[in-house]
Amino acid sequence: MNLPAGPKLPQSLRIIHSLFRPTEALETYRHRFGDTFTLTAPGNAPLVVCSHPDDLQVIFANPARFDSGKGNQILRFLLGEQSLILLDGDRHQRQRQLLTPPFHGERMRTYGQLIGDITQQVIEQWTVGESLVVRLPMQAITLTVILRAVFGLSEGDRLEQLKGLLTQLLDSISSPLSASVLFFASLQKDWGEWSPWGRFLRLKQQVDQLLYAEIRDRRRSADPNRTDILSLLLSARDEAGQPMSDEELHDELMTLLVAGHETTASSLSWALYWVYTQPDRYHRLRHELKTVAAGDPMAITQLPYLTAICQETLRIYPIAMFSFPRILKAPMQFSTYSLEAGTWLLPCIYLTHQRPDVYPNPKEFRPERFLERQFSPYEYLPFGGSNRRCIGMAFAQFEMKLVLATIVSQVELALSHPRSVRPVRRGLTLAPAAGLRMTVVNSTRSDT
Predict the structure, then answer these.
(1) Which of 206, 219, 382, 428 is most buried when burial is the number of CB atoms within 10 A of its CB?
(2) What CATH number should be reported for the domain whose range is 11-443?
(3) Displacement of CA 388 from its chain's centroid (Å)
(4) Which DSSP string do the residues of 185-237 spell out, in sequence order?
(5) Which tens digits make up the pLDDT trace of 26-76?
């Protein structure tokens, strides 16, 4: 087996570097070793990072050559054994078929009004002159949307408890320092409720209890007229006519809550930063939004410049720096390398999106590039690719457009402390620095 070159630093030092300087670490490796380089996967297996579109096409076009769920075991303690993300083969295909329908078609129209209403409720609390920590209202919007769209919860103690506990749970592993428990098993020790891991476990237990209680209640009082995702999953049947078990439902709900909340909040925070720090693009977007009726979510989501802004936001700092790893089932010739079974291949979304041969001046935020040409799924892949592409992609893009459109059409924001904002690690994702603050400088809402 011959492998691409890679850094010789101990794995622990490389992990620390990637925790505190995630994008800089990747760019350093590409500068030194090129498009393809080798790191170390769990169990000391070779991990080949790749970012050339030709290499990504080989990986995505041949899903049967790989396992992927085995490479995501780092998420087991958060999502559960039955999460779609951790499954392979027939079990993965079954769960994917059961989970996909609620995120497409006419269901989206129902969610559109919900997203607009929730966003409106949040921005109605803003006052001119107020300085906002941008992430907090974006989290409030996306968490409420996901709880109401997934669970159909509009009020009550369980909704409020889930809001509070999920926020605490994800915040407990959000900073680069606290996220280290994800990568170092030696830190996963329960020393009581005041220890980081002990606190996480107790919060997770409380969330689990609420989710299982909701599943039991909904099984007992099934309502065929409900349109939330939990109701649809409860009624879903696989090819053998079998429903999902309580454990499967719990783990998939947890996956949707985590993947559909934190990620979209980060994307929206970035989008607001880019739009309001570039006046020409802000005014062009405002002008475009005036061409459609405010209450028509489907028309809003078809607007080309709004779409381009969201696409460029997800390009320049993709929330997921990598697609899911692929683990070779059998030996394979990959580019100029001969790889053995058990080798990990890791498509790097961030480095692919930063290629100057695909995206000239890649550090520049320029939505127009998406109006000028079409990019292949091996050049632009913010939601991963092939049979591992995020099932919530359509919903996430839909939500991002509607929230951004609602805010920009009514409120003008400005950086509270004008300076560039760098990406930092938030758990397993890439997000704006937590201190990003914006001030409400003008509002066209009728009550201000």
Answers:
(1) 382
(2) 1.10.630.10
(3) 13
(4) GGG-----TTSHHHHHHHHHHHHHHHHHHHHHHHHHT--TT--SHHHHHHH--
(5) 999 999 999 999 999 888 899 999 999 999 999 999 999 999 999 998 888
Whether the model clears a pTM of 0.90, i.e. scores above it, the answer is: yes
For residues 312 and 90, what is the distance between their CA atoms, to the nearest angstrom? 35
Nearest alpha-carbon partner for 67 in 348, 350, 343, 389: 343
Is-contact 344 322, C-beta < 8 A? no
Tokens of 364: 């520049």
C-alpha gyration radius of the chain: 22
Q: Which residues contact 8 (CB under 8 A, 6 or more apart)?
A: none
Q: What is the DSSP letter of 348?
A: B
Give me the phi and psi of 436, to 5 degrees please.
Answer: -60, 115
Q: Where are the beta strands (DSSP E) in 365-435?
A: 411-415, 423-426, 429-432
Which residues share a beta bridge with 338? 2, 333
Interval 378-429: pLDDT, tens = 999 999 999 999 988 989 999 999 999 999 999 999 999 888 888 988 877 8
Please report the pLDDT score of residue 350 as a whole number.
97
Q: Give yes or no for a contact between 421 and 172, defined as CB atoms under 8 angstroms apart.
A: no
pLDDT at position 75 is 86
- Give me the mean pLDDT over the 101-128 stretch: 86
- Write out the two tokens for 38: 């080798």
CA 76 – CA 187 distance, rounded (Å): 16
Residue 217 CB contacts under 8 Å (≥ 6 apart), including other chains: none
